[in-house]
Structures are given as structure tokens and as C-alpha cells.
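Supplementary Methods S3. Input chains for the assembly prediction are listed below.
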Amino acid sequence: MEKCEACGTPHQAELLKAVIEQSKSTPGCLMHILQEAQGIYGFLPMSVQKTIAEGLGISLSEVYGVVTFYSQFSLKPKGKHRISVCLGTACYVKGSDKILSEIEKELGIACGECTKDGLFSIDSCRCVGACGLAPVMMIGDEVYGKLTPESVKDILEKYRREEHV
Amino acid sequence: MQAKMVNLKINNISVSVPEGSTILEAARKAHIEIPTLCYLKDVSCVGSCRMCLVEATGARGLVAACVYPVSEGMEVRTNTEKCRQSRKMTLELILSKHKKKCLSCERNHNCELQKLSLGYSVDEDRFKGEDFVLPIDTSTPYVVRDNDKCINCMRCVAACQKQSVNAIGPIGRGFHVHIGSAFDMPLSESVCVGCGQCIVACPVGALSENSTIEEVWKALSDPSKQVVFFTAPSVRATLGEAFDMPVGTNVEGKMVAAIRRLGPEHVFNMDVTADLTIMEEASELINRIKTGKPMPMFTSCCPAWIKFVEQRHPEMIPHLSSCKSPQQMFGALLKSYWCEKNGIDPKNLYVVSVIPCTAKKYECTREEMQDDVDAAITTRELARMIKTAGIKFTELPDEEFDNPFATATGGGTIFGATGGVMEAALRTAAHMLDGSFEVLDFFAVRGTNPIKEATYLVAGNTIRVAVASGLANAETIIRQIESGEKKYDFIEIMACPGGCVNGGGQPTLSDSVRNNVELKESRAKALYTSDTKNELRRSSDSPVMDVIYNDYLGFPNSHKAHEILHTHYHADKRI
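Predicted C-alpha cells for the full assembly:
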């Protein structure tokens, strides 16, 4: 279990508080607040879920149940560069599972995790609407198509180099 | 206004039920049993397990009887080949990931899944589910959760929600869904208060009390230990159920006889310290009224309620009576007064309380009073011990409790039902304030309504009282007090709906019984009948109280009484 104290900046806390205040009287607001909170923090650690539970007067268990039900929510921090490998039908038949394994091997982490240096995190997704370019992945907002295990290494290297400039 | 009636046929039997009734309710009226798993009267009705699927005209495919409303002219069939095949498949799918350790399971022979599996001739190994082993949570002294036996029916979650505690919920999605606390933290770190309503809601063996039977057996066979048992008021009203006796049978005499045959030195009556609690609590109430201390005062006999206040409403701590619960008072009195009087070293006295409650298992481990009671066992655990010992319960003669803690008043006995503590306190407090006040029946605080209110005028004092059972109702009362909407002087709270008779440590009856009887009312009736028959009904009239106070404590709320019979609480805010 990740420790909840000292998580996030005072500015982030302000933003979260404002979101809760704005929405708390709307029935069914939990989903919206969780999405906003994930936008603010990048993920949903215990401290954030506690703040939301307290703000809405519901139990932490209820919040956690919703967070773990939807794959869009993450309990783990995300990297500066978020890699999202498409495992939709078209990409999958073009071997995107091998692309994903290659990235996992290259970064030494599993899908859903974040590298120790905080640079990359890997997730999978279902179809980004670029099936003509299959297999496809996204890094941040950038789309990379017609991937091969070799080309993936070069792409990752590009991001690493940028970091050292 | 009378509800509109709807006419339908179930298995060709005509039945007429109010509009809005479900097929399940209508079937009950036609004396037809439809199998259920996730449904539990008063607790859970979500239609998710698909066991109660039936054929109904006008519906596409099979429908869930527990949630499907009846309509005029509907024809329902509950036992067709299609229904049976569907239920069988459902059971086989549930069993594909169920830990089938039935031989050693506490619910063996009392398991809804087992009963249905036998009835539908399932092949328990037809499907092989993905093997994954979930950890067993033994972090609390009261509940053990074995999720590999869990069938995700959500009845425990519904029970916890109904208590407004919400300590547990479904975690994850799909095949990996399991029930637990937020972040899969141990239950001991959650907002759980230990009421045990989840256990009595569980249809299988996924939830049980953290049993201390083995320690009790060990003490009973240890020649250096003097073992004494005492039983809480409501245990006599429910223990018979574990031996197939009708709900609401008072088995006090057989219970005493059975415990005596387990081999302790003495079997005492906890109704005695219920009387003692009243002496202390009524005096505290009068003292608070006279000295202007924080009002209203809440009762403090229910340890789940105490934990609820400490964790959710620490601001209410000054309003809690400082009296220990009857269980803790008894333990403390035995380890002090009784030991001194009989020249026993308290270290050699092993005190076992038999309680309808799981929170009391936690209460006796609280550090403020952990030496008072050595083991607290539930009604269910006592029944198991009696069965293990080969005692034929129903054939036992009626025997009496041992002196000097045998005689109690009716006021002590009704402690086991919602409103009972209030009524007992009113009997004594009113008499303490006005010696000519002779009223003994306070009907307004009886019954199983979730919240009851009354106002009494005694010796120029207006006493406004409220009684709530079920923590959701306690929550309502606290909100009303905090907003200024309601003003009370004295409030009784019992965490379990209906009070201790419906406690988390009581026998788990089969669904076919529970869904058809008014459990809380029937069990409470046994206690009120005993109260009416008792010549002594006011706690302050008990001759045992005279002895205890004259011999040892002096007078109610004396320095010595405070030292032994009172306690304190601490804030432990949790989310």
C-alpha cells in the first residue's frame, strides 16, 4: 500500500478542493470528480481518494470500489511520457502484443507500471482510430504507426536523448 | 389507502397481491419457495445471482423473481426444466471458483450454496475456474474473511451499507472481483465497527467470527484455572435455534444445564450486571441532569456503537455514558470483588462471556479493560461447543444459574432487545428521582421501529428520550442533534437492527426461515415475556444489587464503582 502523506503540491490540493466543492451537490458526481482528480494528479493515490471520500461524506471503500472498477483510473503514478499500445483487433493481428512485450523488456517494467526515473509508463488501449497504420502506439499525444520491435527501440531512444539535451 | 391488488397464477395456483409486489413475494403467499442466494429479506435485493430465475408470461427469457414486479393476469412457472437447468448452470459456475473445503467449514450443513447444490444435483467440478488464492483476513478479533469461499453475492456489503458503515465493498472487476476494505487494507484498519451483521448475512462460510473456542477448551482442561461462564440476556432467546427449536424459544434453563456440563466452576447470569449497569447509568444520568454536564447522554453498552462514535463522531465522546458494558462490568467485578471474597488469585480465574455479538470480542481486548474478560464467545460458538461435547441439548433438564450472580430483574433481561436498556434505565431513574413513581411499562420505547421517541415527566424533570437500533439510524439521530432539529436528554443506541437479539454472533438461520419470519420481533418477545413473569422488574429492587453495593461498592457512582465499573474513550477518526 502506497503511503498517503506528502503526496502532491498545495496547488494540486487547491484544485482538487475546488472540483469537489463545485460538484458535490450533483448526484452521481463521483465519476466526474475522479476523472478531474486524475487529471490534476496523474493518478489516484490514497490521499486523493481520502480527500474525495471526506469531501463527499462517503466511505473510502466506496471510492476505491469505483476506482478499481474502471480501467481509466490508475492507482499508480504515470510517467512523463505515457506510452499507450493499441491492442485493438487490427493492431493485435498485426502483432501489437509483441510490440508491447518489446517495450516492457526495453523499459524493464510491466504494462500499467512506471519506470523508476519517472520518464515512461506503459498502458494498453483499445483502438486509437488509426487502424491503417497498425500496429500503433501513442506516446503522449503523438501517434506512432507501422511499428516493428526494432523501430520501437529507436523511438524510445529519441525520448531519452531529449531528456539529456 | 388500500393498495390495488394484482391477480396472477404461479404454477397454476391463483394468488392476489398488492400492486408493486415482486414474483418472489407473490410466490411466498402461494406457499411456493423460489431458491435465492443474493436476496435476503430486509437486507439485500439486487437480482444479481440469477438463482431465482423463473418463467413469466410477457417476459423475454427468464426473469429474476426477487426483483421482477407482478402484473395482472401474469402466469409464472418456477419449476420448469428451463429454470432448473439455468439454476444448475449458475451453481456450477459459482462452484468453479469456490474453495470447496466443506468438511471443515463452519457452515457445513448450514450453507445455502451446499443446500442448493444438493437440490439441483450439480457437478461441483464441471468447470475449472482460474486458480487464485486470496489471503484470509484475520486482522480483527471479531471477523474472519476467507474470500476463496466468497460467492460475491454482496449480502455482506449490503448489510454494511445498511449500517451506514461502508467498511467493505467490491474491489476490481470481472473475474477478479473480491470483497474487501479500501486499498485491500486489513479490516482492522478500516472503518469497520465489528457489529458482525456481515457474518449473519453471509450465505456461505466466507465470513465467520474469530473463534476463541480452542482457548476456552484449553482453560477448561487446565487444573490451575478456575473457569466461570456468564451469558448475556439475549443468548437464551436464540440458542435453541441452533438445535432446531422454534425461533423465540427461551431456553435459559437448558442453556445453563448445557454450560454446566461443559465443566466450568460456575455459570452466572449477565442480566445481573445489566442491572448493575442500570444502577450506574441511571445515577450518571441524574447526576448529569443535576450538574449540567453534556447532554444528551448516550448509552454505552454496545461496543460497536462505541467504536462507531470513536471513529466517525469523536465529537460525541463527551456524550457517551462512562459506564462499561454489562460484559466488562461482570469481568471486572469477578476479578475484583469475587476474587477478594473467595481468596482467588485473579490470575487463576478464567472468565468466559457468552454473547450475541462479535464486537464484544473486540471490546474485551481494548487496552483500558483487557484483563476483565478472558474470552468472549458468540451464541454460535457456544452451540458448537455443546455439540462437540455430545450434549443432547433438547433433552436437558432446566437448571438455574449459580449464586450469588443468579437473580436478576426483568429490567436486566430486556437489555437484549432494542429499547430494553432505555426502559430498564427509566424504571430505575424515575424511581430514584421520585420514590412514589411506580410505572414499570414504558411501551413507547418498545418494538422494532428504527427510531422511537418519548417524553416523560418525573419529579418536575422533563426527560426526552430516543431509542435507535441500526447504526444508520444512530447516524440520523446524531445529525438531528447536531443540526439542532431534535433535543433529547437520554438516547439508547444498539448497533444491530432490533438490538442484541439480532446480533452478529447469533445463530445463522437458513434463508428459507429468515425470509419468512420476523426474527427480531420473535426473539425479543421471549425476553419481554420473561420480564413480565419476573416478580422483580426494576433493577434497583434486585437483592443482588443490595449485596454488591453493601458488601463492596458502597453506592452507585462511588469512587470504587468508578474505578471498577467505568471507563473512558478515545478519538480514532477514520474515513
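The first strand of chain A starts at residue 81 and ends at 86. The interface with chain B takes residues 1, 46, 49-50, 53-54, 58-65, 68-71 of chain A (CB under 8 Å).
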